Amino acid sequence: LLAEIRANAYDMVINGVEVGGGSIRIHNRDLQMKVFSVLGMSEEEAKDKFGFLLSAFEHGAPPHGGLAFGLDRLCTILGGKTSIRDYIAFPKNNQGRDTMMDTPSGITPEQLAELHIETVAPKSKGGEKAGEASFSPAART
């Protein structure tokens, strides 16, 4: 089933470099329900979470799509560079960190309490709690 799935998608390419892409969105209720099913979502869950969308499809949503291009990629080509990092305002390093904003950063107990989030350390094989992982900026290398 998954090997038979097709998309009406397109890319914008300049001199062999992809600078944008897009697709025609799903606009058919039956097809959308098949996608939800492949994702493991029951019909009830799909209606609960996406009832507004499924209802719109029942009334006849027209085909619609879009195209998004990467200004950073376009600037890379026009600027004669090879890396988009030269044109990204806040590039992330190879570890996914934003060094300009020092993110991701630690979470304070006050922030966790405000959001009603509780962390629980996993139990080790011996039944005792394992050491809690540190997420503080000082613990990063």
Description:
With 141 residues, this protein is an alpha+beta fold. It contains four helices and three strands, in the order ββααβαα. The protein has helices spanning 29-38, 43-58, 71-78, 109-114; strands at residues 9-14, 17-24, 65-69. Strands 1-2-3 form a three-stranded antiparallel beta sheet. Helix 1 packs antiparallel against helix 2.
Explain the layout of strands and helices:
Blueprint: E1 9-14, E2 17-24, H1 29-38, H2 43-58, E3 65-69, H3 71-78, H4 109-114
Antiparallel strand pairs: 1-2, 2-3
Residue stretches low in confidence (pLDDT < 50, at least 5 long) are 131-141
Helix content: 25-40%
Give the overall shape, derived from the CA principal axes: flat
Distance between the termini: 45 Å
Order of helices and strands: EEHHEHH
Question: How many runs of DSSP E, i.e. beta strands?
Answer: 3
Q: Major sheet: size, sense and barrel closure?
A: 3 strands, antiparallel
Rg is: 23 Å
Strand order of the largest sheet: 1-2-3
Strand content: 5-15%
pLDDT averaged residue by residue: 83
Task: Provide a concise account of the structure shown.
With 141 residues, the protein is of the alpha+beta class.
